[in-house]
Amino acid sequence: MRQRIAVLIPAAAMLVAGILSCSMAVAQGAAPPSLEEQLQAQYKLTRMAEDSQGLTVTEAGTVLSIQKGGILGVPPSSMVLCPAKYQDGTLHAPSSFCAMTVKDNSLIFLTGAKVYVTKIEVKPKNEKVSLRIVACDTCNGTNPPTFYRSQVDFQFAKGFLENPDVSKIEDAIGEVFAIDNGTNNAQAGQDQGQAQAAPAPAPAPASTRPALSNDDVVKMVSAKLPNSVIVKKIKSSACAFDTSPDALVKLQKAGVSEAVIDAMVDKQ
Question: What is the pTM of this model?
Answer without folding.
Answer: 0.59
